[in-house]
Amino acid sequence: MAPKAIIAPSILSADFATLGADCARTMEQGADWLHVDIMDGHFVPNITFGAPVVAKIRKHVDKPTTSYGRGTFDCHMMISEPKKWVKEFKKAGCDLYCFHYEAAFSSAAESPEAKTDAKTNPKELIRYIHDQDLLAGIALKPATGVEVLTELLESPDPKERPDMVLIMTVEPGFGGQKFMASELPKVQALRQKYPELNIEVDGGLGPATIDQAADAGANVIVAGSAVFGAKDPAEVISLLRTSVEQRAGKL
Length: 251
Known about the structure:
Layout: E1 6-9, H1 19-28, E2 33-39, H2 51-58, E3 72-78, H3 86-92, E4 96-100, H4 122-131, E5 135-140, H5 150-153, E6 164-168, H6 184-193, E7 198-202, H7 210-216, E8 220-223, H8 225-228, H9 233-247
Parallel strand pairs: 1-8, 2-3, 3-4, 4-5, 5-6, 6-7, 7-8
Helix pairs in contact: 2-3, 6-7, 7-9
């Protein structure tokens, strides 16, 4: 059975002066999740915000009552040491902790202040996220081949399998970039092999590009400026959802 369409507007494009109200309004306009971009200035050149801001906006959006439910905070961790921040973001209200594969061979420390020479790895990090009762996502930069995920997605231990895969359709680090259709074969390969997997796409998504992403098999759609910059955000969210739903299960 094809997974449901999920629209996750990226709050990177919201009005930061009224961030809580903007997040609440976007949920009222039909969003399923909120995509929360965390950037540390190391893994990517940009800096956004940290756990304290997430905790503040959590007060404006009800926590989901079920896994993958409405109000999920989908935290996209574009940071160089993702294991250090899992517990902090859980406390702040994160529901799905999505780290980058490329950053997963880093410190095994379990808090920002801790130090260790031990290293983590993607499989161990997914297990650790699940142990904190969070959903685990894994993201790929454009330069990373999708084949690196096979060992994780086909692990005999469900605790080592990601709940979602994020295929970046821009280079991570900045909003408003041009959509890279060259990344869609990764989405198609994953959808054909794993028909029930939640596959997210992020970067340059909007009314002009959604059909390409949906045709490839993406079901979790991140859109920033296309939603927050629209005259009618509810109409855009509905359009994105319809495109995914019309193509569900056709690959």
